[in-house]
Amino acid sequence: MVYSLNQDWIDKVKDLLGPICEGESCELYDVESTGSRSSRVLKVFIDAQGGVTIEQCANVSNALSLILDVEDVVPGGKYSLEVSSPGLERSLKEPWHFEKAVNKEVKIKTQQGVMPVQGPETKKGLKLLKGCLKAINGQVLTLEDDKSRVYEIEMTNVTQAHTVFVFDKPGKKKKN
Predict the structure, then answer these.
(1) Domain boundary residue, one of 84, 104, 121
(2) Is residue 170 in a domain?
(3) Strands 79-84, 39-47: parallel, antiparallel or unpaired by DSSP?
(4) pTM for this prediction
(5) CATH classification of the domain holding 33
């Protein structure tokens, strides 16, 4: 059984992280809990303009660890704390995550199949879409795939999403 965080104490951890991140010139990206009741990991992801440094991660970890010990925010006993960057292929959960990913390659999984609103038709709606995130308008994401199909995806239909790192090989020219 995977242990899941109670939203109330996630919010408390996020509140505690605000001033710590501000002091380290970074921003809180996400908070997750993984593992089982006997082996839990509290994961904190921070980001900064140009990327976070190891020093920023260590400073946030040390400061948060002290506060969490004093405040006793994390229920259920023993856990490990990890602080890191969200990485190149970062999870997209919040509307502002998607806003920062506009014009980037993304992969999106949905509950229900999505049909293109523009471009070549598909036989059935797709539940796994990959392409360039063109826009976010309220609760609707606009994605264009490599076949010039445009999809409009309701955020309530998204079950999982992340950016996709595109590696350009040196010396190779992109096809137009």
Answers:
(1) 84
(2) no
(3) parallel
(4) 0.84
(5) 3.30.300.70
